[in-house]
User: Fold this.
Amino acid sequence: MSLRRLWAVWRMPYIKLLATEAGKECIFCTLPAEGRDEENLILHRSEHCFIILNKYPYNPGHLMVAPYRHVASIEDLTEDEAKDMWRLIRLSMLTLRRAMNPEGFNVGANIGKAAGAGFEGHVHIHVVPRWNGDTNFMPVIGNTKVVSDALRNTYTELKKALSEVLEESGGS
Ligand SMILES: [Zn+2]
Assistant:
């Protein structure tokens, strides 16, 4: 199953989200500022960037890494922000490996509307775990309540795995 097809499965709710949230505030600015990390599915914060679980995942465990600063593209990041971003991408992958044992990853960013960016004003890197035959997720989990419970469970699982990874690496 190709990534294109996997993403297509998730296109409709995502497009609806974009339609309803068009013109609203930037979630990568507002959610970290609210200070309700668990509710907002923010998994980890570092000095310049944070990791957040995607509410409209392409796959379970779909994470996003973003800087706190509202900048549109990777080349707008300072050296420190860019380093921190790569550190959190790496941390996301280590966490997902520990918690969910994926067989592969898609890691990347859509920069600008032409490239398919949803929130085009605030750069974010997608970290999507992949398994062989992983598109079974959507047909099985077909309703909002179940998706929301699944997100909570995934959050708890990943939070635990992330703290174990940090403990073992001795970093923060
Ligand atoms: Zn923003």
User: Anything to note?
Assistant: Helices lie at 3-9, 11-21, 27-34, 79-100, 137-140, 144-169. The pocket of zinc ion is lined by residues 26, 28-29, 70, 121-122 (CB under 6 Å).
